[in-house]
Amino acid sequence: PNGSPRIFLEKLDKFLLKLSYWSSYKIIVAGDFNSDIDILSNNKKTVSDFINLLRQYDCYSCNYEPTRGVSCLDNIFYQWCHL
């Protein structure tokens, strides 16, 4: 919770890039994200950066409903399967 969102996104990007080299694997990102990454808060730059980063790897949220109060902090993002 006290970490830097920018550093988190940089490390996540590097990790997803490595995973994307193995095309036989599908990417799933799950987490109990802190309030910096409440995907229902569209007005935060960190949220849009996070969602855009995941979309670069064809990963999309399974949920856009509140999971804690009015916030969506617990989420799973999966890689869209291309047919």
Main beta sheet strand tally, sense and closure: 3 strands, antiparallel
Distance between the termini: 38 Å
Can you tell me the overall shape? globular
- Across the major sheet, the strand order is 1-3-2
Output the structural class.
alpha+beta
The helix/strand series, from N terminus to C terminus, equals: HEHEE
Number of helix segments?
2
> Tally of extended strands?
3
Instruction: Write down the overall mean pLDDT.
Output: 87
- Which oligomeric form is depicted? single chain
Structural Rg: 13 Å
| Beta-strand residue percentage | 15-25%
Low-confidence stretches: none
Query: How helix-rich are the residues, as a percent range?
Result: 25-40%
Can you describe this structure?
The model has no long low-confidence stretch (mean pLDDT 87). The protein has a 3-stranded antiparallel β-sheet with strand order 1-3-2, with helices on one face. It is globular and about 40 Å long. The longest helix has 16 residues, at 5-20. α1 runs parallel beside α2 (45-56). Helices cover 34% and strands 17% of the residues. It is an alpha+beta fold.
